[in-house]
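Session log. Operator J.P. requested a structure for one protein chain; no other inputs attached. Running the standard single-chain path with token output.
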Amino acid sequence: MVEVVVLFVGDDWAEDHHDVEVQDETGKVLKRLRLPEGMAGITRFHDLVGRFVAEDADPSQVLVCIEVDRGPWVRALVAAGYRVFGVDPRQAARHREILGSSGAKSDKGDAHALADMIRTRRHQLRQVAGDSEIAEAVKVVTRAHQALLWERTRHMLRSRGGCPPSGWRPGAGRRCG
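Structure written below.
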């Protein structure tokens, strides 16, 4: 079976934004862009990728390399069908050193190194696994169970004369006042 890959994306994640570089199979940089965190950023990410793929392309033909393997952004990429590879920051730093000797760290440089890494070394990287339907169902039930228990605890405290503050969570102590 021949693997058909259309795009390689390096995604340097920061707390409030993502620096992204898109490369083709030859390593030619097609686009660099800074995206905001959240739905607006994911929307722009999809728009960006859509510019460079054929109409009949499959999302699995887009490989994304990022220094984290969890969180809403990564889950959104996996759910969209992209093949996402989370790498250890030290592994990314070593690859960055191979590409340039200056040692200077920059978000654009990191995005470039990650795109190059997924293009040239994907066989050495671990793909982020999407959760099965059963795992997703367990998460939903677990979160609902947790919310119900927290609500029950709040009601018990209120009925006993306690006054949990807004945003109170079990284990945070009973601070009233």
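Operator note: The beta strands are 7-13, 17-23, 29-36, 62-66, 83-86.
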